């Protein structure tokens, strides 16, 4: 964002001008100060630049044209993923002798600075560690002003070395010379280090140190090649590494980690190795190369496995792989030595938070890893790897963490400080100060006590870091979510107003927040399940949203889920509930693997409504169809049935049209029963599963267009976990536009439950501006 009104002119004697500039956003730790210093000096300008708690302040003086040229280029001086606002005002001339980088200042109240996200190692640093003549040859903690850890090592603000995990590492004379040299790319690089003065590696087996330094790296690589599982302390915490081409190693990893089927991410040495086994388009490649270095879901190449291809056990039936390139010099050097794809998955026990300390690794990962590669630079703020997928030319963040956090995701229409606690799965929280809304990294599900304790610690840490005191605290409507209970506790502690937000209203509001849309908007909230005000499980909702109010104008016809929570894990149970309400129970035994006794018990439960809650969930309708086609009777990981259904549908002709049998009643009930009748008939006639799956997707696309045309003013927001389905999302975006409608969806905020906190904060901020009665029915 360029400074507003560039001709704000203050001309002093001799055509000189001086401006005071405040930059806010991700402006610390991105090489901004050194870049401005060099540019100002080159243009003969004087003044100073310094980090402050809530951003960067610059005063620059010189010839008016040169000053304005510098201000116009401020956006270009920071990292490409920095987001900042520039406010410039003319001030009186001072007339310093030179331009300098001043010592950072502290002490401002309620400062809210967006730290820079952790940046993947740049190409210049990677070339340096691979060059034998360089003094940092083979050094895994090499970085410069444009790359390296930021958020994960920050203790306090402003971002300077003494307030990071590197504070105890005193610079050697050579590093100090580079740090102080304006011509060096490590000028004022806070993470500068080398083998003489920086962190060092240590490799241990069974808690016995084996090697240190470069030899530790070699020993860890050799262990991976021998089929061992190695825990590595990465940027944001521990990762578990294993040879992706070794079926026995992957089988062992799955068994020890209790992760039987969920796909595992794979780190490739370079793009050439990745493209030998996967289809990677230019959009996907650009994301893989970006400083964020996320995991990107890409397609496997069809046909026989290529040399060094990840084994089947990495992703089993899935035709996609979560691919990533090395995220740091440590990972790059390790990949160079192994020279084959490496599984790289989170270092934690099932349902537990990410391990990130030496002590945690010993107690939590000893039963999983054969060896541990760690170092003596602490991880202050643990965070997992980010996950994205590309839908056409757009990049959709599915898990927002390393490389993307922190950053402003929206501006909220309120001056009050807002804290939103999100949901129970894919936990995140959002914090809004001075209208800037930030989303925390992904924490995972809140199943365990350790996960809930970590959420509380991270909330406290963010509040301390930003000096913020929440005035509004938002949470889900569900009374027993761990996040709801924490919200209630925090509201009491801070004397804050508590705002409870319906789950799917928050989903739609997250899209509106990202796009800054405050006018009345129709939202399709197609999701797994969320607590409705009628105490049923919502998830196939059509909501008209305005401000903090919503009206439910349409929804899927509800059906029962026999076994309650168990039915959300077993698509065959959802199928029974759908067959029951559709009058198709006579097909139950042929279409499921339940025996007669089990079916009789479940039928009684459905008839009596015992342990069989009603749901209007679109996610469960996907389960119904997946079970009907025999693709998945029980999920081995969340969303498996829907993923398999999409994969099968992608294998069918794109020319297949929609079924005509889904009906939107005048009451707003979306009656899917005729559709189920038609699909059951086709299934029993032996119609190919690919055809049925594709036509089901096309039917939902047609439904989405019909709902938008009937209820919207031309704009429709798409949110909820079902829109992680790239076939459904891509086709619906295309068809809505073809019909002259404007679709909105979340790209930088996850459409799944990871984005709920953003929607909750948006609604709470809107609600604080008015006292009207919510429009809910």
Description:
With 777 residues, this protein is an alpha/beta fold. Helix content is 33%, strand content 21%. The protein contains 24 helices and 32 strands. The strands form five sheets. Strands 6, 7, 8, 9, 10, 11, 12, 13, 14, 15, 16 and 17 form a twelve-stranded mixed sheet that branches. A seven-stranded mixed sheet has the order 29-30-26-25-24-31-32, with helices on both faces. Strand 22 (472-476), helix 13 and strand 23 form a beta-alpha-beta unit.
Largest sheet: 12 strands, mixed
Number of helices: 24
Task: Please compute the radius of gyration using only Cα atoms.
Answer: 27 Å
Mean pLDDT: 91
Low-pLDDT ranges: 1-13, 772-777
In one word, what is the shape? globular
Share of residues in helices: 25-40%
Proportion in β-strands = 15-25%
Structural class: alpha/beta
The end-to-end distance, rounded to whole angstroms, is: 42 Å
Number of strands: 32
Keywords:
777 residues, seven-stranded mixed β-sheet, 32 strands, disordered N terminus
